[in-house]
Amino acid sequence: MSTVLSASELTSLVEELSAIVGREHVLEGEAARRAYSGDMSWLSIAAAAQGQPLSRQQIVVSPANTDDVAAIVRVANARRVPITPVGGGSGVQGAANADRGGIALSLRRLDAVRAVDEQSMICLVEAGVLIQRLEQQLNARGLTFTHFPASAEWATVGGALAARGSGVLSSKYGKIEDHVLSLELVTPTGEIVQTPSVPRHAAGPDLTQLLIGSEGTLGIITAIIIKVRKLPDVRLFSTYAFSTLHDGIEAGRRIMTTNLRPAVMRLYDEEAASHSLSKAVEASLRTPTLIVVVDGDYRDVAEAEHRVIRQICVDCGAYELGEALAARWWERRYVFYYPPFAPELPSIWCTIDVVSDYAHIEEVYARVTAAIRQAIDPKWDLQLVTHLSHWYDWGTMIYARFKIARGPDALEEAMALHDAVVRDATRAALAAGAVLNDHHGIGMRLGAYMPEQFGAAGMDMLGRIKRGLDPYNILCPGKLGLPDR
Questions:
Q1: Beta strand 83-86 with 103-106: parallel, antiparallel or unpaired?
Q2: pLDDT averaged per 10 residues in sequence order, the chain, 485 residues
Q3: How is the chain split into domains, by residue range?
Q4: Do 348-445 and 446-485 agree at the fold level?
């Protein structure tokens, strides 16, 4: 259910918000809609291209600091107007779309690196800081964030937290939740909260982790204390070809369950190796291929880890392809997300990234890839490439990316085609024992499947938390599969 403000309500709300942030930081009506048409999901891009944007805010407001955010939330509460926080808009699930109207709250002016503590190796940053810009500032001091998502050019630190994102170095350094010590946030009723300064405490539940992955529904993150590290002194590369995907997964399992921690371990299935990976590294690859990157502060330690990983891969039947391919992949690792590697309209595309333990991952791979290929009429010539890129000591994930080179011209028909593939792949993943998503979040795309993931009692529990924190349901109503009202 969308909120549509009358002309008089809109005028009054603009005046009230302008008193907080200044008139130049409030857009209304058509100007607000033009300023932000939606995130980077195919859903948003396709709808906007046909003049039917999924983000339907009537106001865009840009606060300068946490006090501004709190004041804006209090105004919205008093008026019962929905708010959708927006960072860099780089998400691919529709979480940052103001699909219920109301206010789009841009956090991009909250872009200060407030403090760097090189003794504790932590950094206090505001939520609107672009990840790439943060990394550049840290690199100038010999430091690194180690959170390198493909969207680093556009993504904000706060957005990564809201969606529980990941980066290419996650197998060693963890996902975004592993980089965070503490949060400053604004509650859905406009109070400012600072969570305890460090994690691993016994001072009650961890409120920091409650907010991470909540996609703006439980509070608005305004600042974060993150961990930083020294830039590694050594980085080593290797590439391995396997005769089967099973062998590659087994090598990855042995590596991760014996406390080895490569910075990167990316296993491409046969289709992905022979198409997207081969093009990116300018080589002819025809079998499942594993890219490995090891880094560290001590060369002897990194070299020892590199040797052990090599032996595990060889023991699992790998043929070593050398350093150059992996080094080239590292240099060009972001080309996959730009044309000509990344799809553009009139194509239809989407990624299904689901995660499971090692006991289920091969069945998850088999059932999800089969479901994607069988979901729609073969006349649409669906193309599918899949890799496993984030590894844990208990399991891993699959990143299945499909593309239809040209879908129906009518938006409704194209959406139906897209939704059919997502539906069949998602239900196949859940049936095989996977979790709904690994690192892209839920957004608009997957909200309908949350009850299948959490069950009735789990959704009731989530709903109780939401209602307790947000009694008027103003923050991102309808997201995470929660009811509008």
A1: parallel
A2: 85 97 97 94 96 96 98 97 96 94 98 97 98 97 95 94 95 96 98 94 91 97 98 98 98 98 98 93 95 98 98 98 96 80 90 97 98 97 96 97 95 97 98 95 95 96 97 96 85
A3: 7-108, 113-230, 234-337, 348-445, 446-485
A4: no
